[in-house]
Amino acid sequence: MTPATLRILHDEHAALAAMLRSLLLLLAQHRRERTLPDFAALRAILFYLDEFPEQRHHRKETELLFPRLRERTAEGAELLAKLDRDHEHSERAVRELEHALLGFEMMGEPRRAAFEEAAERYVDAYLTHMQHEEQEILPLAERALTADDWAALDAAFGENRDPLTGHAPDEAYRALFTRIAHLVPAPIGLGPATR
Length: 195
What we know:
It contains 6 helices and no strands.
């Protein structure tokens, strides 16, 4: 039986990848149409990235999953160190992206290219990071961790309850996810489809 932690991580990665791709699709659509994007939708996406993956998902990988894996095997040590460095950098990277978005929103067209390039770098780095976790670290964890390890991890990761993976949002986040659902196009939200 697959540990709940692995299902949770796979679901969170899939939701996050869809959110990241939606960000780039929104930008591409508005670039083609020569229109300004919906800045509220972009702010909601970036706020979600900062609040959920950065504060919950990454933190638990770095503080719980990766140390347990290091205790059980020396395999993957170099990649785990790189992923931890990615986690340290990604919180700063999303803040820099939020600042670039603010510059684009306040300054207009002259800041579009800088924001779009920063968004593309951010998304590419994030997708590569998740690919390493999915293809190398999670299979290693499945082989190396014990039933007791999984029980502790399942309890911790089970608290994540990311609304983009089908859970009802906590009361504090209900407005954010309602906003995302109505501003962001499918497959993440209910907003108009991108062309």
